[in-house]
Known about the structure:
It is a single chain. By secondary structure, the protein is an alpha/beta fold. The radius of gyration is 21 Å and the shape is globular. The chain folds into three domains: 80 residues; 134 residues, Rossmann fold (3-Layer(aba) Sandwich), CATH 3.40.50; 153 residues, 3-Layer(aba) Sandwich (Rossmann fold), CATH 3.40.50. The chain is built from 18 helices and twelve strands. Helix 6 packs across helix 18, helix 9 crosses helix 16 and helix 17 crosses helix 18. The strands form two sheets. Strands 9-8-7-6-10-11-12 form a seven-stranded mixed beta sheet, with helices on both faces. The structure holds NADPH dihydro-nicotinamide-adenine-dinucleotide phosphate (NDP). The site of NADPH dihydro-nicotinamide-adenine-dinucleotide phosphate has 26 residues, from helix 10.
Amino acid sequence: xxNKCLVELMASLEKRNPHESEFxxxxxxxxxxxxxxxxxxxxxxEAGVFDRIVEPERTLIFRVSWVDDKGKVQVNRGFRVxxxxxxxxxxxxxxxxxxxxxxxxxxxxFEQTFKNSLTTLPMGGAKGGSDFDPKGKSxxxxxxxxxxxxxxxxxxxGQFTDVPAGDIxxxxxxxxxxxxxxxxxxxxxxxxxxxxxLSYGGSLVRTEATGYGLCxxxxxxxxxxxxxxxxxxxxxxxxxxxxxxAVEKAVQLGGxxxxxxxxxxxxxxxxxxxxxxxxxxKEVERGRISEYVKSVPGSTYHEGCSGIxxxxxxxxxxxxxxxxxxxxSAKALVKNGVIAVAEGANMPTMPxxxxxxxxxxxxxxxxxxxxxxxxxxxxxxxxxxxxxxxxTFDEVDQRLDGIMTSIYNAxxxxxxxxxxxxxxxxxxxxxGFLKVAEAMKAQGIAY
Length: 447
Ligand code: NDP
């Protein structure tokens, strides 16, 4: 990074947030790709937009106490970082995972601001969650935790203020418990959470949206070089919500998915993953991916996660978690002839691995563009809630497809306009940033 104002800004972020490695990593990546904007738009520098956009508008940290099945009091820490509301109400998921801390939530909220801007829908950026670990907890414990979490969060959200959604560890069950508690406390029916069940205001396609959207984006990226999913071998990491529906759409588009993982290890099924078996294990039984090999002869299970990237494939879709794909894995993928890597998870690829892909002319789609289908469909859920009606599966799916195509066009167009043709990381950051930046400038600064 050479631009003086951005170099100084990055140095001040490092000084003020010394322990927030994930946040600093995300901020560095974004600011680096905004250099041409800082050069071309002194008005935005003058208006302090760069300095303001990296600082959350509001950060909430709160105690979540709940009682476990043995009657013992447990205490977790809850977070909601309301990053930016320049273009609409704060919007972003809630993550329940032991690794959750302020740095992780800030990095996710910062990224969400640009992602939401790219969707073309009026949504600001936020993220939240807790270090609560849902693994091994009973249904009752999860319910009591979610209710306690919402008892505090309720004071800070609302359909016109902040609309949370799911993320790692927060699926339909958890959203249901949180929504129920919000309704009890507020005595109002509004679309305050997205990812709701279909019987109480949820949208069709929301469950599938991130995985499907990822494949629509990848399809557009491949189209630009005259390629498609047809006949391609695909490796997908994770086996949660995003991964499962990425498998479904990749197969519908003609690809063959041969591997999936969880935090314990990965499965390799050279004949093509049997998604019915995966859904039964992961969505019904909430089991481990290793159980797949018991049902599918010819498949193998391997301990450890990163080995999945040594499997030969044409398309790699990291859909598990941040920093899961490092330089060694990138080298293995390139050596095996990968042509496209698209991020279903948030920041799964480490910075040196991203550079390696770009240097080796591998098509690379950053998460903030490629996985925006989830939040885009959440935006469509908010829209249906406000109108008090529900669209059909095909109607929502078509809108999702249209949004993902326009995100691809916006990112590749911005990259070209700012002299970084083909660099979708820069393009997505620039396109996402400009809309928020113009809105911030127009709204002035409170003295
Ligand atoms: P889930 O909780 O449904 O699934 C996460 C999956 O990743 C699980 O299979 C988990 O395994 C696995 N996993 C976790 N850590 C690792 C690891 N180190 N290596 C391999 N696998 C691992 O989450 P989602 O599918 O919803 O989210 C996945 C990613 O996508 C996250 O980065 C999230 O922020 C992002 N995302 C999600 C959206 C959504 O709509 N759901 C929208 C946009 C982005 P285990 O069960 O062992 O923990």
